[in-house]
Structure formats: structure tokens, C-alpha cells
Design a protein that fits this description.
The protein is an alpha+beta fold. The chain is built from three helices and five strands. Helix 3 links the parallel strand 3 (88-99) and strand 4 (129-135). The protein has helices spanning 3-10, 60-82, 107-122, and strands at 28-31, 34-37, 88-99, 129-135, 144-152. It starts with a helix and ends with a strand. Helix 2 (60-82) packs across helix 3 (107-122).
Length: 154
């Protein structure tokens, strides 16, 4: 077990299996020294624990927790192509999508769930640029979707 996975264990977290693609794409691809993940839904054991719009059927607090799950799934996708999370030099960018009720404007707070998880797990290597975007609907009526871009150690 590497240092990153040991840190996950300290936090009481287990790296999940990679979420299988829902369509014609790969969960993650490496290009040069970078790994780009596809958008990761908050799947747990192959299912969404909750569906709906944030600010309507889903509370912002629930959605923040779901964003943490998305980030954990993104780390699993990174490991699927690198073989070792200790190869991460830094998280460069996080893009988060929040299926939002028409009057919901708390997208940044929701995506903090993903950002905070990456910081807890990776320390300074988890500090990143970010976008948090409200959208009308996400695949499978998921409340949140997160993708990450990581730079690898040479």
C-alpha cells in the first residue's frame, strides 16, 4: 500500500472499484504526464445513493457528501491508468457540475466536498484550480458530477 492509500485508510476511506463507463468513453486517460478523468458520478457499489436536483430533492449538505464520493471515484479512475496514486505530483484542475434547482446558487459549497477530500488525502498536492457549474440535469439524474486533471511525477 502506498502513502496515498495509507492516508485514505487513516481517514477511514477505501478506494472503490472504478465506476464502469455508462457510454462510449474511458473512466480516465493518460496523455504525457497528465491523467484526465471523465466525469465521475457519486456511484456507490454501482448505484446512485440519491437522485434529483440540489436545492429541491437533495440538500446542499447531502450534495457536498456526494461530491466527496465523486472525488474518491476520480482517484480510483486515476489509479486505474497509473497503477499507483503516489505518482500524483498534484491535482491541477477540478471541474464540478451540480444539477441545480432554478434558484440554487450554492454550487461552490457543494463542490467543496470534492476539493476538501483531495486536500485531506493529498495535502499540498491536492490544491487545485476549479470550476463549479450549475446545470439543469446530469446523467441518471445524479445531483453531482466531478472530473479531475492530475499531473504525474516524471
Amino acid at each position: 500500500m502506498g502513502a496515498v492509500e495509507a492516508r485514505l485508510a487513516e481517514l477511514g476511506l477505501t478506494l472503490p472499484e472504478v465506476v464502469p463507463p455508462l457510454a462510449a468513453y474511458q473512466p480516465a486517460v493518460q496523455s504525457g504526464g497528465y491523467v484526465y478523468t471523465s466525469g465521475q458520478l457519486p456511484m456507490v457499489e454501482g448505484k446512485l445513493p440519491v437522485t434529483g436536483k440540489v436545492g429541491a430533492e437533495v440538500t446542499p449538505e447531502e450534495a457536498k457528501g456526494l461530491a466527496r464520493t465523486c472525488a474518491l471515484n476520480a482517484l480510483a479512475a486515476v489509479k486505474s491508468v497509473t497503477g499507483d496514486l503516489d505518482r500524483i505530483a498534484r491535482v491541477v484542475k477540478v471541474v464540478g457540475f451540480v444539477a441545480s434547482a432554478a434558484d440554487f446558487t450554492g454550487q461552490p459549497g457543494v463542490i467543496n466536498g470534492a476539493s476538501e477530500l483531495l486536500g485531506e488525502v493529498l495535502g499540498d498536492k491536492g490544491v487545485h484550480a476549479r470550476s463549479a457549474v450549475g446545470v439543469a440535469v446530469l446523467p441518471l439524474d445524479a445531483p453531482v458530477e466531478v472530473e479531475i486533471l492530475v499531473e504525474l511525477e516524471p
